[in-house]
Amino acid sequence: MVRAKSWVLKKHFEGFPKDSDFELKEVELPKLKDGDVLFESVFLSVDPYMRPYSTRSMKEGDTMMGTQVARVVESKNPTYPVGTYVVANSGWRTHFISDGKDLHLLPFWPEKIPRSLALGTIGMPGLTAYFGLFEICKIRAGDTVLVTAAAGAVGSVVGQLAKIGGCKVVGCAGSDKKVAYLKQIGFDEAFNYKTVGSLEEALKKASPDGYDCYFDNVGGEFSSIALNQMKRFGRIAVCGAISGYNDTVPQKGPYVQIPMLFNQLSMEGFIVSRWNDKREEALKRLLKWVVEGKIKCEEHVTEGFEKMPAAFMGMLKGENLGKAVVKV
Ligand SMILES: NC(=O)C1=CN([C@@H]2O[C@H](COP(=O)(O)OP(=O)(O)OC[C@H]3O[C@@H](n4cnc5c(N)ncnc54)[C@H](OP(=O)(O)O)[C@@H]3O)[C@@H](O)[C@H]2O)C=CC1
Ligand SMILES: CCCCC/C=C/C=O
In the chain, how many domains are there? Predict the structure, then answer.
């Protein structure tokens, strides 16, 4: 018999999440039926979407939502022999039983590439960067691209893909260490949005002619300021709005109509799953770039399933450089 631990949402978050909003539970898993597979989670992802989506689609008492890289430990399903690795969407659990549906196999994973990257650059966040940049921003060589939360899971891939695409890239992040990292991975300009005196001046200094594309991960005040520095026909990919995820009262304008009108801007929100039909092809390209060293990957690894809430809250506070994951 296997005892599985899970983290449940004990109380809906009000403002910034607290330790007391989570509860650790333990259950005994039943025996496998024909077609069943028993998995152990090896790496779990902590992502910003868990904060807004918990409010929209979870009830108190539900297991926290989330994805993991998991390994088969017992199987009654020939598609998943013992030792096989998958990406699953089974929430914050150490072990789980699946009937084999809705799993993504990691069949041809190169030995030298950490499997945890299937939760980051070669997974959902990498795909978000890829589709947001190529399908929404529609980057062209020579464009100047601005990206926020640039040293995180999505932003760091956005910047490197834009460089591959022949763009000039400006990134903003919340610490000097993150800014140094952005320069190291090829960003042309980077600044710490928490310490610059004026965001407007910092954006102007980084690109005096303005921006063709803005990959917006944060929303809020920063984006209001950035919108006024877009070039004519600029494209804005609204990927995330993390600056507002913990707000109890929604932020108010300035509003977007005036800069959008006079600079004839396009602004489009998107959810990565829109391009599920192109997922496999995009993952192959991301993996190839990582293997060739054209995309560098950083991870912020927290050890221990017990630390899931701390890792999640730490990521929301900006403690992570690169993708935040938990190693069980
Ligand atoms: N549309 C979609 O399909 C998807 C959207 N997303 C969105 O992309 C964004 C980035 O996600 P991801 O790369 O996984 O996360 P990150 O790895 O970038 O981690 C979150 C980062 O957000 C930054 N941050 C936190 N609070 C604020 C704030 N108040 N203002 C500005 N920045 C803040 C912190 O970096 P710093 O130290 O620089 O402040 C923190 O490290 C999120 O908004 C997320 O919701 C992600 C995946 C899919
Ligand atoms: C299960 C992945 C859903 C990603 C959508 C994210 C939106 C904002 O973070």
Answer: 2
- The answer to whether 158 and 147 have CB atoms below 8 angstroms apart is yes
Ligand nearest to the CA of 57: 2
pLDDT digits (tens, 9 = 90+) for 91-131: 999 999 999 999 999 978 999 999 999 999 999 999 999 99
- 158-195 pLDDT, tens digit per residue, is 999 999 999 999 999 999 999 999 999 999 999 999 99
* Coil/strand/helix, residue 275: helix
State how far Cα 170 lies from the chain centre: 19
**Token pair recorded at residue 296:** 């560098």
Asked whether residue 249 is assigned to any structural domain, the reply reads yes
Residues 32 and 77 in one domain: yes
Tokens 């991975």 belong to residue: 185
Q: What is the pLDDT of residues 40-65, one digit of tens each?
A: 999 999 999 999 999 999 999 999 99
State whether the beta carbon of 128 lies less than 6 angstroms from ligand 1: yes
In a domain, 22, yes or no: yes
Print the domain residue range for 14: 3-120+298-327
Would the CB of 124 count as within 6 Å of ligand 2? yes
Residue of 44, 45, 46, 47 best suited for mutating to test ligand 2, as the one with most atoms within 8 Å of CB: 47
Residue 218, Cβ neighbours under 10 Å: how many? 25
Q: Is 75 inside a domain boundary?
A: yes
Nearest CA to ligand 1 atom 16: 152
Strands (E), the chain: 3-9, 22-28, 37-45, 68-75, 85-88, 95-98, 104-105, 144-147, 168-173, 189-192, 211-216, 230-238, 266-269, 299-303, 323-327
Whether residue 240 has its Cβ less than 6 Å from ligand 2: yes
Q: Is residue 188, in this structure, part of any structural domain at all?
A: yes
